[in-house]
Structure formats: C-alpha cells, structure tokens
C-alpha cells in the first residue's frame, strides 16, 4: 500500500518534472536562421567592386552566432558561378558606433581575439570557397555578440561587410584577373595582389568584348541562438597568417609580442626541368600562441593553386589540417579550376585538441608551383573555448530546478491519491483488494 503510493507519487513527480524541464532547455537553444542581401553591386565585364557596407542588416540583441554563409547572386536570386563573377573575398567586421557632437560617426572596429596586430580583425570571412565550407559551430558553443554589458554607454553595435568581386566575363586571362596580376589591371609593376585590383579597377578584356551590366548581391545567411549563459559556452576567434612577421615578447624589458600580417604572398614557378610532383611551394611560420584553450573549429583559407594548409602544435602533432576542394564542372558551387570549399576540423569531446598558453605553433601552407601565382593567401581561422561546457543537470539537480508553482500540483496529486486510496479502502473493506468492478 505504502509502496504503491510511493511509486505513484514518484511517477507523478517525474512526469511533472519531465514536462517542465525538457521544453525550456530546448527553447533556449533553438537555432534561428535569417537571410539578408548586401546593397547592390553593378558589375560590367572586367570591373572590380571592393566596397565596405556599413550598418548592414544583421540579427540584433544578445545572441550567439552559430554560422555565417554567403554567396553571390543576381537580381532574381540565381547563383553566380565563379567563372563569371569571381568572389575574391567577403569579410564581416563588428564595430561600436555613435554619432558624436559634430554629427560624424565615431566608430571603432571590435577586433576578434587575435593574433594579427594590423589586419584580419574580422568575425567571419572567406572567399571563393564560401559555398562548400562549413562555418557551423556545434552545440554548446557559439560566438557571443550584442551583450549589452560590453557595449559602451551611448554606442550601438553594428556590422560592416566588405565584398571584393571581380567580373571576369570576357577577360583576356580569367585566372590572372582573379589573382590580381598588376599588368592585367594596367599597372606597370610586376607581380600582383590586392593593391592592383582596387575598387573600380578594370581587368583586361579580349579585344572587342562587350557584355551587359549586371546587378549582383552578396546573399548571406546567419544562424544564431538567443544567448543563455547557462547552456552556451562562448568561443573566441583567432586568425593566423602564414605571412605573419612575429617579434617575440621580452618580459624582462616589458615588450609585448607583435604580429605584422602581410596577408598576401607570391608563389614562383618551379621552372622547366623540375618534375611536376616536386613543384610544391611550402611556406611556414612559427610563433608563440598567446592564450590557451580548446579547439572547437578550425579551417584554412587558400587561393587557387593551394594544396593544403596545416597547423601543428609544439610537439609536431597536427592541430588541424584543412585541404581545398576543387570544382570539376561548370555550375555554381562546382566550378572547375576554382577552390569551391575547404575542409574543416571539429575535434570531438572524445578526442579534444588543446592549445596551451605560450605554446609554439607552426602554420604550413603548400601551393602547387607548376605555375606562378600572385596575391595568394594562407590563413587559419580557429575558434577556441576557454571554459568547459557545464555538465548536464543530474536527476538530483532537476529536482531542485522544479519551478515553485509545480509543488501545489504535486501536492494536489498526492491528496487525490490519498483520497482515492482511502475511499477504496472504506468501500472495499469487506471484499479486500481483489475487487474487480
Ligand atoms: C552600365 O552601363 C552604362 C551604359 O549602358 C554605363 O554608362 C555605366 O557606367 C555602366 N556601369 C556601371 C557600373 O554602372
Ligand atoms: C567626430 O568624429 C569625427 C570622425 O571620427 C572626428 O573627425 C571629429 O573630430 C569628431 N568630433 C568630436 C567633437 O568629437
Ligand atoms: C607540404 O608539402 C611537403 C612537401 O611536398 C609535404 O612534406 C608536407 O606534408 C605538405 N604539408 C601540407 C600541410 O600539405
């Protein structure tokens, strides 16, 4: 009798608790998706567009970013293939802004956590590989933004999107245009790089080529969750660059380490007489990483010609190796000759990857040197967690979490059972417990 009652009570308690806790945990971690379009870019054959769009549309409030994907589309939303309009890069930066007394915008970029001192301040940013590169941050991690406690009084958080696109329709040398080779853009200097394909620059076209103007957009998709510090673990963004010119810190003199990132470099052709297999240009950089943490996500960034980039720890073990995926067809997302994706790293809790504060890391980038390349890059984007995910609530702590208003319901249930059992006891006295109505 008493045992029966106890079982019924526990069952009711369990049902009530289960009903109360399951939906609330799920609701806070619902991933929301919003799709936006950048301001329009009017392209014509050979034209470069490299503009900053301040205050672009973006989810507002205290949120955790889960992913950011982007691609070029035309006015009807059709995907543009890279061999028509090449997406050199897009970069999303965060800032705080306010209108100052003279009515001008007082604006400061909120840099990611490092490590370049001069550039690469973005939260997200890739290039041609955008369509097939996962940017998803797994549960329980997210990039925390919009926290009112970190936005200075009187300021507002905003986002600036930089899009660098090159219209290569009718180009004399399509690949050369995408590599920003100076001679193709009317500059007399050798080599290439971003300085030779500035906004409104023009790449050389085949003689007599004519093509219509085209209005294009960067369509971007942001996934996020409402921030909840009890269930989300924040991650910090670090961008490493193989061209980083690093000067060591000198504690005795109070000098901090500096990182000057050149971002671009050139690859020389291995020349005639070298076997094709041997034509690999290897560039590497070794530096001390300033903070410790657990790797949640890693991805490299390379341009066409790239054959892989790897980050090694102090012991020479691989932290993350990211390889390019080359297209094989003609359609958007699979353009032959272009890097259409980069492989990513998602260490699992079973095989965690940690970086220690002050650990010496080495970043290696390989490019094919069968042909020369200009304006290439090798960046590594890392997301690190500095705290451990909180353990899942145990049954005991679930009991503690039962909201106060639930207890009267539980009590009512107990009262009902007691009354029913007592009533059954009274009317069933003569027939005993075996009564079947
Ligand atoms: C578009 O075409 C017109 C001529 O039809 C031209 O004047 C204009 O400059 C073109 N380019 C852009 C980027 O608007
Ligand atoms: C307002 O901001 C502009 C641009 O940053 C700056 O040049 C100007 O000096 C500022 N004026 C005041 C009164 O702070
Ligand atoms: C780079 O190329 C060298 C030489 O071919 C090779 O030993 C190394 O494993 C490669 N590293 C990466 C990151 O691809």
Automatic annotation (TrEMBL):
<keyword id="KW-0472">Membrane</keyword>
<dbReference type="InterPro" id="IPR011692">
    <property type="entry name" value="Stress_up-reg_Nod19"/>
</dbReference>
<keyword id="KW-0812">Transmembrane</keyword>
<keyword id="KW-1133">Transmembrane helix</keyword>
<feature type="transmembrane region" description="Helical">
    <location>
        <begin position="405"/>
        <end position="423"/>
    </location>
</feature>
<dbReference type="Pfam" id="PF07712">
    <property type="entry name" value="SURNod19"/>
</dbReference>
<keyword id="KW-0732">Signal</keyword>
<protein>
    <recommendedName>
        <fullName>Stress up-regulated Nod 19</fullName>
    </recommendedName>
</protein>
<feature type="signal peptide">
    <location>
        <begin position="1"/>
        <end position="27"/>
    </location>
</feature>
């Amino acid at each position: 009798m008493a045992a029966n009652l106890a079982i019924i009570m526990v069952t009711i308690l369990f049902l009530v608790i289960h009903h109360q806790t399951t939906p609330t945990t799920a609701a806070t971690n619902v991933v929301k998706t919003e799709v936006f379009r950048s301001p329009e870019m009017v392209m014509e054959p050979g034209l470069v567009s490299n503009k900053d769009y301040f205050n672009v549309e973006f989810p507002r409030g205290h949120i955790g970013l889960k992913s950011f994907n982007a691609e070029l589309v035309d006015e009807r939303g059709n995907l543009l293939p890279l061999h028509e309009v090449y997406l050199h890069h897009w970069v999303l930066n965060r800032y705080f802004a306010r209108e100052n007394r003279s009515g001008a915008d007082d604006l400061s970029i909120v840099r990611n956590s490092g490590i370049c001192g001069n550039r690469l301040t973005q939260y997200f940013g890739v290039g041609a590989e955008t369509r097939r590169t996962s940017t998803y941050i797994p549960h329980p991690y997210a990039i925390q933004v919009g926290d009112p406690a970190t936005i200075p009084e009187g300021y507002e958080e905003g986002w600036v999107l930089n899009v660098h696109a090159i219209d290569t329709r009718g180009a004399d040398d399509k690949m050369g245009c995408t590599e920003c080779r100076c001679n193709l853009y009317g500059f007399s200097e050798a080599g290439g790089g971003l300085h030779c394909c500035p906004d409104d620059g023009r790449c050389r076209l085949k003689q007599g080529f004519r093509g219509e103007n085209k209005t294009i957009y960067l369509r971007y998709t942001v996934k996020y969750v409402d921030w909840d510090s009890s269930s989300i673990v924040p991650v910090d963004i670090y961008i490493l660059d193989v061209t980083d010119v690093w000067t060591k810190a000198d504690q005795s003199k109070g000098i901090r380490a500096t990182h000057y990132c050149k971002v671009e470099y050139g690859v020389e052709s291995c020349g005639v007489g070298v076997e094709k297999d041997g034509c690999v240009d290897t560039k590497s950089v070794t530096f001390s990483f300033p903070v410790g943490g657990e790797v949640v996500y890693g991805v490299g960034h390379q341009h066409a010609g790239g054959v892989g980039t790897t980050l090694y720890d102090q012991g020479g073990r691989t932290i993350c190796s990211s390889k390019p995926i080359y297209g094989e067809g003609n359609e958007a997302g699979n353009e032959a000759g272009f890097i259409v994706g980069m492989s990513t790293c998602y260490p699992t809790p079973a095989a965690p990857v940690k970086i220690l504060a002050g650990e010496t890391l080495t970043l290696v980038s390989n490019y094919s040197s069968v042909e020369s390349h200009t304006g290439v890059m090798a960046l590594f984007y890392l997301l690190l967690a500095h705290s451990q995910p909180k353990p899942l609530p145990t049954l005991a702590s679930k009991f503690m979490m039962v909201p106060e208003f639930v207890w009267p319901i539980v009590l009512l249930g107990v009262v009902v059972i007691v009354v029913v059992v007592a009533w059954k006891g009274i009317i069933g006295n003569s027939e005993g417990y075996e009564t079947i109505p």
